[in-house]
Amino acid sequence: MKAEIIAVGTELLLGQIVNTNAQFLSQGLAGLGIDVYFQTVVGDNAQRLRQAIEVARTRADFILFTGGIGPTQDDLTKDTLADYLGRQLLIHEPSMSKIEHFFSSRGSHMVESNRRQANMIEGSVPLANETGLAVGNAIVQDGTLYALLPGPPREMKPMFNGPLRQWLIDVSGQHNLLYSRILRFAGIGESSLEAELIDIIDGQTDPTVAPYAKEGEVVIRVSTKAGSAVEALGKIDRTVALIRERVGQYMYAEEDIPLEEAVLRKLRDKRLKLSCAESCSGGLLSELITSVPGSSGEFLGSIVTYTNTMKHKLLGIPLSQLEGPGAPGAISESTAQLMAQRVNELTGSDWGIAITGVAGPTESEGKPVGLVYIALARRGGETTVHSMKWSGNRSSVRIRSAKTALYRLWELLKDET
Amino acid sequence: MKAEIIAVGTELLLGQIVNTNAQFLSQGLAGLGIDVYFQTVVGDNAQRLRQAIEVARTRADFILFTGGIGPTQDDLTKDTLADYLGRQLLIHEPSMSKIEHFFSSRGSHMVESNRRQANMIEGSVPLANETGLAVGNAIVQDGTLYALLPGPPREMKPMFNGPLRQWLIDVSGQHNLLYSRILRFAGIGESSLEAELIDIIDGQTDPTVAPYAKEGEVVIRVSTKAGSAVEALGKIDRTVALIRERVGQYMYAEEDIPLEEAVLRKLRDKRLKLSCAESCSGGLLSELITSVPGSSGEFLGSIVTYTNTMKHKLLGIPLSQLEGPGAPGAISESTAQLMAQRVNELTGSDWGIAITGVAGPTESEGKPVGLVYIALARRGGETTVHSMKWSGNRSSVRIRSAKTALYRLWELLKDET
């Protein structure tokens, strides 16, 4: 099946936002064994959108729209596609009830245009929106598949992964399905990982082995088309075993979970509690950890200290450690160590992580941008400190520091009996 | 002039990389007053690339290619466009010398295919590549403009900003440039903001007024084409004044900065310090604030308490407030208030923000997902508490709570003398 993704939104054509939806959907369709031949972006303009549909119709069997199904007058995708297909727009009653309930439960006035989000193209299948109000649509006409997803990623992703994925499997009736397994790595860069595996990546055509980088992590997708899950599993297992042999020490999960979730699971297994003391990461480490549902079982809390006075007041680090001639300073191995130990004591956690360094854009204490100390303190045990020298901007220094802290903890937990 | 951007590369269609080039080029063309009507992505396939050119030819006056001009057999853009235009490929001698010199000066063997990077479409203008080896091309045929840029951003950007920009100004002879101003809003949803301004948005063609949503915020772009900056400014000022009159109370900046930066600037002006106590937002509020460079001037720190014991130990909230029959519980107006006041006292800040609530996915203390209390405590002054009922998933509840806390502080700071 040949697919074309049409992203609708003038903000994309003005360069105000980047089309990350096209990337997500391309990956998702590849995962279903559907080839994307074209991606198109068109503005919030009915005439040009119709033109784009006409073009896509000549070169694709599946046209996947994202954007333009919200409440405003600019949101024209359903209207335009309905018109192109010669169908009416109807109201999807469950969605309308949901919209009305949404506003009435907040006691807020509903702007009339919000009703547009319950629109359905006559004869289409509704795609439920778990995280928003606009219902998606999917329809087959004259052998071409059409699906409409919202533009905001937090609504689009669950709709793609849930109801649209199921509809595609049902409608396309594919027998040789694509099976894949995600392997997730940390503590190693993409190019180093690729260098270790280059013969496997280049040499294997079935399963295929495709690495790609995420912020502070690397992901490998091992994929094969097979007639049954059993057949696919056997092929995938053999390839994963080859990969594990080479770079198993960096592989923190054989499924698609972020590093913070892998760490939380290990803590849960061992009934251990975690707390953090953050300086240059400014709360990012806690934010990553608490983004995982259920993290309150293992994560106690974090003390974010953004000044020396706070390191003294909230963490009890002696001021003589932080300031004055000959003091190691806030950005030092010994301060990182003290921060990790102190937060452990204050919270009563089993593991304390501390991050202190220079996120930039300017140096601090005469120390260069990118210098970061990460300390991991075990209650009643040792404290280890890692010194990192990152290149890259403020945001990249912060995320890589937080991910490295998590990776180092994961490593230590793996060895802890 | 109507432009279409064609990005060439199978890696884009597989979702291995995101098309940031399209964003950069769209912004750059908007800055030159050139309207981008379509963005297209096509793989490294001559037949489908030719198809894309044929489509673009019917709807654009300027077709801007990026990608596919490197050394490999996959790099087909020059070959395909030359063939489409009925022109030969020639060698650009200065580029060829540069390529040969590049390899000989490093003493490394030159793979023959590297010569392809010196190819020029007969009759085209060469666009110098400051940061790489592949020469760009620009040509006009039958009234349509064509330009070819490399795919790697570090080669593409200087070629666009330098030689291509100059060529476009020369060839198109444009005098009217596009000017625009970004207005940023918080504390109001996109559809409500649009409802307030619908006559302005629909009625104005010069300047144009375009709203779009960001997570927890709304942005409006006011744009006009004018012969001079003075003329443009006058037109934009008049429209911004109309908007300010209607919804000024939600407009936190007349430039493109995030809410957290606007809050930090207000704090700086008034020489005030901020600290936070976070429960369900788990560090996200601190992370947002500290993502702004220089935030250490106003932000002291944050105490993230993810359990009742931590609220008691680290913030000194009485356990009787949090647990037991008749206790208000951690998710309550009075706990939010105490958290904000306590963090103010502990850190010595002027403003303390607290967030406590249920981010989900499951309820807590028998209270529903989405119920969040936000408290703002002024040292030596009042504490205000807002109760929110969000719909949406964990991530959305967290981000909207953090942004709302910042908006409420911005409001209070605006009124504080």
UniProtKB/TrEMBL annotation, chains A, B:
Family annotation (CDD domains): cinA (cd00885)
Residue spans crossing the bilayer: none
InterPro entries: CinA, CinA-like_C, CinA_C, CinA_KH, Competence-induced_CinA, MoaB/Mog-like_dom_sf, MoaB/Mog_dom
First and last residue of the signal peptide: none
Residue ranges constituting the MoaB/Mog domain according to the UniProt record: 4-171
Gene3D superfamilies to which the protein is assigned, alphabetical: 3.30.70.2860, CinA-like, MoaB/Mog-like domain
Stated family: Belongs to the CinA family.
HAMAP family, per the entry: CinA_B
Family matches, as PANTHER family: NICOTINAMIDE-NUCLEOTIDE AMIDOHYDROLASE PNCC (PTHR13939), NMN AMIDOHYDROLASE-LIKE PROTEIN YFAY (PTHR13939:SF0)
Protein name: Putative competence-damage inducible protein
